[in-house]
Each structure stands twice: as C-alpha cells, then as structure tokens.
C-alpha cells in the first residue's frame, strides 16, 4: 500500500511539472525587473514602498498579477497584461480594448496609488499590479498581434519540445540560461547616470511604441514550427536581458515619481 501511495504521489508531481514550467516575462524575468528597480529607488520611495508592502521586496511582489489569474474574481484585470497592435501601427492608431490594456492599466494603478483617499490595501494591490505591468510592457510579445494572441498561437519548438514564440520570450530562453533572478540582476550592464536618465525619458506610451519596434523584429526571428535552440538564445538572450534592465530602470522612475 505504501509503495502504491508513493507511485501515485510521484505521478501527481510529474503531471504538475508542465504547469509550473510554463507558468509565466516568466517569474524569473519579472523578479529581475523588480530587483533592478529596487536598486534605483530614491530613499523616500524605498521607505514608502517598504511600508506599503509590509517589508516585501519588489521582486517578491512582481509575480502577484500572474498568480491572481487563478482566481476568477480578478478576471477583469486580465487584459491589462498586453496590447494588441498591428505591425504598422503605433499605440495612438491601434484599436483600444474597451476592457483595458497595459497603458490604461498602468494609468489606473498610478491613479489609485496617488489617491489620498484610497485605502492602504487598495494602494498595495495596485502597486503590485504596477510592478508587474511595467515588466510586461518590456516583453515584446506582450505588444503583439491579436490574431495569434501575442505569439501564443505562433507555434515553435524549444530544443525539440512544443512551445510558442510568446513562451520562448516569457520563460524558455531566460530559464534555459539557468541563472537566478538575483544573478541576472547583479550581472546587468553597468550604466552611467546619464545612460539611466536617458532610458527613463518619455512616457509609458513612448515606451510601448519603442518596444513595439522590437516586437516586429521578434516576429521575424522565427518561422512557424521552427526548432529554436542555441543559436536563437545566442542571438536574442542579450536583447531579453536588456529589456529586463530597461523595465527595472523605468519602473524605478515611475515609482520615484509616485512616492
């Protein structure tokens, strides 16, 4: 009986592995964004955020917006994670989702956090959402085509295993590098104060339009059904790392302005 129970337990664990493997930038990417942002906060912003999050780090809360997808009561926030744009459009010309998108979601988070009458609980919730959404904004497939759901229906293989172009950029490529989020953040490029300031210029919409130029490149980087391996990682991992660093630096800008 004991052996049978162990076999059943083992089977349950094996069946659960694909679900956690493809969970969600993925968890590592979002934590990199949060960790980098933490290092660029002003003392004032850092203190206020620490109080609002009860001591939790930005890296810790960065995956919250994906975790709540399991609860139907948060379904109204689902569309905040992405923007659908045709290749020849900028954000102004793109058809807007009436249920909201990355731009309107970030704006709503900023509005609640700035509202003196909002409760601490409400502010903390929208702060966690904001940390995640600024990260999503810098993952190029979160500003993708409607017809393939931002690359989710763009089927490819990753080292002979079924995947899609969105997942490759969300997690496959980053997790395949086998560095923790701490290691990735620590090894981000060294930038001068002027370089950081330059990255922080512009509005959220400006950042969306900038990332969308990269989205076009990513769509052209693979063919449907292609088996992506070492060469793809060699050519694009540095781009993914740059995007995570930009996301962290710009998230810090947004938070410093708010607090």
Automatic annotation (TrEMBL):
CDD domains: S1-P1_nuclease. Signal peptide: none annotated. Keywords: Disulfide bond, Endonuclease, Glycoprotein, Hydrolase, Metal-binding, Nuclease. InterPro entries: PLipase_C/P1_nuclease_dom_sf (IPR008947), S1/P1nuclease (IPR003154). It holds the Pfam family S1-P1_nuclease. This is S1/P1 nuclease. It comes from Urechidicola vernalis. The lineage of its organism: Bacteria, Pseudomonadati, Bacteroidota, Flavobacteriia, Flavobacteriales.
């Amino acid at each position: 009986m004991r052996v049978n129970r162990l076999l059943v337990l083992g089977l349950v664990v094996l069946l659960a592995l694909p679900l956690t493997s493809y969970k969600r930038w993925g968890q590592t990417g979002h934590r990199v964004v949060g960790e980098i942002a933490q290092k660029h906060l002003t003392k004032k912003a850092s203190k206020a955020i620490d109080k609002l999050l009860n001591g939790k780090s930005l890296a810790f809360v960065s995956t919250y917006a994906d975790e709540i997808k399991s609860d139907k009561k948060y379904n109204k926030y689902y569309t905040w994670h992405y923007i659908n744009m045709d290749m020849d459009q900028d954000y102004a010309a793109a058809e807007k989702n009436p249920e909201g998108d990355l731009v309107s979601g970030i704006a709503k988070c900023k509005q609640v956090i700035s509202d003196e009458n909002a409760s601490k609980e409400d502010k903390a919730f929208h702060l966690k959402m904001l940390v995640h959404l600024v990260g999503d904004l810098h993952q190029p497939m979160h500003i993708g085509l409607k017809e393939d759901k931002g690359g989710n229906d763009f089927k490819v293989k990753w080292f002979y295993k079924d995947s899609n172009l969105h997942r490759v950029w969300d997690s496959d490529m980053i997790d395949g590098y086998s560095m923790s989020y701490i290691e990735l953040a620590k090894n981000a490029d060294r930038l001068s104060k002027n370089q950081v300031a330059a990255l922080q210029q512009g509005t959220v919409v400006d950042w969306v339009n900038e990332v969308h130029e990269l989205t076009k490149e990513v769509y052209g980087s693979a063919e449907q059904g292609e088996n992506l391996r070492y060469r793809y990682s060699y050519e694009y991992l540095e781009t993914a790392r740059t995007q995570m660093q930009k996301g962290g630096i710009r998230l810090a800008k947004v938070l410093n302005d708010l607090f």
